[in-house]
Structures are given as C-alpha cells and as structure tokens.
Amino acid sequence: MKTLLNTLLACALLVLLICPAVQAADLENTLYLELKDGRVVIEMRPDLAPAHVARIKELARMKFYDGIVFHRVIDGFMAQTGDPTGTGRGGSGKHLPQEFSEAPFDRGTVGMARAAAPDSADSQFFICFAPAHFLDGDYTVWGQVTSGMEYVDKIKKGSGQNGLVRDPDKIITLRVAADVQE
C-alpha cells in the first residue's frame, strides 16, 4: 500500500512539473476577454511576439478594447476585432513591426490583423475558429485561447465573403489577468 501511494504521489508531482495546463498561469501574460456568453482566457506569447504582446497589454490596461465590436466574423475561419470605428479600417494609431514566427494558426490561435504591408498591424486582432495554416509565417501569432473557446464559437457570424457583421457582438472587457482582483 505504501509503495502504491508513493508511486501515485510521484506521478502527480511529475504531471505538475511537465504539464503546462496544470501549472499556475503567468497572470502578467494572460488576458481575460469577457464576451456576452462568458470568459475567454488567452495565454499571450511574448516569446513569439514581444512587441505585439506589450502593445496589447498597454491597450488592455487603457481599456481601449472595451465595447469594441467583432466587425468581421467568418464562420469556419476567424472572428476579428480591435477597430474602434467598427469598420475594419481603424486602429489605435500605432503601427507595429511584424513578428512572424513558425507558430501555426490552429484553432484558438490569436493573431494580429494587418493591411497588405507586413509592418501595418495596429490594434486589430483575430481568433481562429479552425486551423488556418495558409496564414502561417505571414501574420503575427501573439496568443492562444486556453479556455472559453466555446464562447468564441458563439460570436455572431457575418455574411458574404468579407464576413462583415450587422449588429455585431462586442467585447465587454479585455483585461490583463494580473490586474483583475477576483
């Protein structure tokens, strides 16, 4: 019995050491995205895109994203937000240099939207509903949804090829987890 107990304890310790999902979150690099249906937790990736993560945190702390709509939502592809005008043409006014990486655009990946120029990303970002590997290496990956993807799936979808949304869903709040007291 004692051997079995020691084995179980050793296994539990091993899981805690090697499984990132079980480890405590890095609250400074975690975002809480509050949507109408619930909380989405995003793990930011400063190892891949330090300038983008720093800017997203700066904007979140300014409450820039609060109330901003998901203006472009394409079923089976992604939900895009971050434009204070709601047209898809606006931003915060500060362009970021590209930080492309080998990280794939899988379900739940959070990437930076941009115009045709690689260094044109600003405040707009998107969350992938499904793998979008045609974006790999051409857009900046800066985060990954770690919980609440079922709420992202419920964001109102747009119509037509461009996915523009009538009466779109909004971000309620976007906060750096380290700043949230629960």
Automatic annotation (TrEMBL):
Catalytic reaction annotation: [protein]-peptidylproline (omega=180) = [protein]-peptidylproline (omega=0)
InterPro entries associated with the record: Cyclophilin-like_dom_sf, Cyclophilin-type_PPIase_dom, Cyclophilin_A-like
Domain PPIase cyclophilin-type: 38-179
GO molecular function, one term: peptidyl-prolyl cis-trans isomerase activity
Entry keyword set: Isomerase, Rotamase, Signal
CDD domains documented for this protein: cyclophilin
Signal sequence residues: 1-24
Pfam families: Pro_isomerase (PF00160)
Domain of life: Bacteria
EC number: 5.2.1.8
PROSITE patterns cross-referenced by the UniProt entry: CSA_PPIASE_2 (PS50072)
Uppermost EC category: isomerase
Biological function: PPIases accelerate the folding of proteins. It catalyzes the cis-trans isomerization of proline imidic peptide bonds in oligopeptides.
Family: Belongs to the cyclophilin-type PPIase family.
Protein name (Swiss-Prot/TrEMBL): Peptidyl-prolyl cis-trans isomerase
